[in-house]
């Protein structure tokens, strides 16, 4: 890859800090050595999620004569990433300057006072630059608290040869009911993520938001938030899961299925439909299935109501305890510049959080034009998981009450609502 210029427009320094931590975690932590190279140039340490070199390349692009940016890799598991960062930040660790955050943890870190404030002018720029779903996932209490970096979404992948056996018109929106019926009647299996893990909560959330509902509202109230999963939308979501789990289209491993096993089901002789992230094209696209892979908008939960595909990605936050807070805030503008979003996408397959990033030729070359357009359309409509500091508790409660899929019925939303409230109020443990 040709080298990229390190010169970028800079945001104003002087970010304020959100108030002190709202929670404390007991821990024993060994801090890293002080930052800075032998020349005395300040070093910004960016804690990143594991990838294939994209974030390290962006860090190099954004290093300047005023500071260098280096990377430290967090654990592979997102939950372990959260734990490591939260423990160190709860202790006021000054050695973390920048951090890559999964969307479900953004509200938690902001509410705890772990994230430095982003100046209003930069907030506005990042909002205007990002897809609506990316900006929403990066916002807490009306403030954009992390800079959207890359974004992911799910689409409905299908085997063209299988759909040819059905009467489905994949150029038009399809519903979960239609997909399940088509697969059941023609010997196909549908790949979903329904193990007892975060991916299952992603599916439940997409089904509920696709029916016009929310798992929780008034989330600024913390553990006093309104739990709204027991609703018509919640019951519509439960109906979809119940229908698939009890149908001929359910894979034998549905209760332990994840992104990987669902992909394997899709690639098998019984493969028909799959909901999964953008990387599936790299696994099965082009000629890997003999040109048999198609793609369409995420299925509708309720016929006639637009689907809300799942949203995933990464936002970059600045630690409120960094000794280099002003420089770290300044670096956000370069790190999330659309050109650098494209650098990251080319190396990792993790797609930009902005339409300008998609306009970069390196991104356009990754996928067919019609798939690029579908990704962007899906990101505009995508629904992040409920923005709350208590998402980890809510997600765990959903997994406990909606798993296994074969146990889901019209009573599940009510039961899960009560369990979520009990967990949030400390009356029950996960």
TrEMBL record:
<protein>
    <submittedName>
        <fullName>ABC transporter substrate-binding protein</fullName>
    </submittedName>
</protein>
<dbReference type="Pfam" id="PF01547">
    <property type="entry name" value="SBP_bac_1"/>
</dbReference>
<keyword id="KW-0813">Transport</keyword>
<keyword id="KW-0732">Signal</keyword>
<comment type="similarity">
    <text>Belongs to the bacterial solute-binding protein 1 family.</text>
</comment>
<dbReference type="InterPro" id="IPR006059">
    <property type="entry name" value="SBP"/>
</dbReference>
<feature type="signal peptide">
    <location>
        <begin position="1"/>
        <end position="33"/>
    </location>
</feature>
